Amino acid sequence: MKKHNLENVSVHYGVLTAAALIIFFFLMLFTGWIYVYELRALNYVILFSGVLFSIKHFKMHNRNTFAYFNGLGVGIATAALGLLIFSVFVTLYLLADAQFMSKLQQFEYFGQYLNPFICGGVIFFEGTFSGILTAFILMQYHKYSHLKEMEKPIP
After folding, report:
1. Mind listing the pLDDT tens digit for each residue in 36-47?
2. In the chain, % of residues over pLDDT 70
3. Separation CA 87–CA 119 (nearest Å)
4. b vs e for 123-139, b when ≥16 Cβ sit within 10 Å of the residue's Cβ?
5. CA 87 – CA 127 distance, rounded (Å)
6. What is the separation of C-alpha 16 from the centre of its chain, rounded to a whole number of angstroms?
7. Which residue in 20, 26, 42, 134 has the most C-beta neighbors within 10 A?
8. Any idea what the Cα angle at residue 85 is, between residues 41 and 39, rounded to 5°?
9. Burial of 66 (0-12, 13-18, 19+ CB in 10 A)
């Protein structure tokens, strides 16, 4: 079994991404910045880092077999797993902390329609689509160019 295959790298970096998102959530909660909406954009920095490091790790350990769609798959799987774990965490947290959920319902734009499950679903889908786009953008940089092969003289 290959240690650095697509599944193992995705799980490893997906769990690390989720852990970083959860730690950041608690950091914002304990500092009282959880209600500063703009700071939630830093979640994307964490997601971007997780996807970037997973693609770089996979490329470094699979140089001979690295293909565009494998790298794209690693980035997407990392984002999806990390956001799945984080969205389940947020859903459970909102179920446990009714006061925080009521503040969200009070101050968010569509607050009257929110419940913990909708919040978790929105986090998962919004974050996963951001992760897909991020993986696609990063793979434009990390893909191997075939231009050098085309420039070789024909024997």
Report:
1. 888 889 999 999
2. 92
3. 8
4. bbeebbebbbebbeebb
5. 9
6. 10
7. 134
8. 15
9. middle
**Would you give the end-to-end CA distance of the chain in angstroms?**
39
Cβ(15)–Cβ(85) below 8 Å = yes
Q: Which pTM was predicted? A: 0.86
CA-closest candidate to residue 86, choices 39, 134, 47, 29? 47
Q: List, in sequence order, the alpha helices (H) in the chain.
A: 6-31, 42-61, 68-96, 98-107, 116-142, 147-151
Q: Dig out the tokens for 138 from the structure.
A: 């990063």
Which tens digits make up the pLDDT trace of 71-118?
A: 999 999 999 999 999 999 999 999 999 998 888 888 777 777 889 999
Separation of alpha carbons 58 and 5, rounded Å: 7
Sign of CA dihedral 77, 82, 85, 88: negative
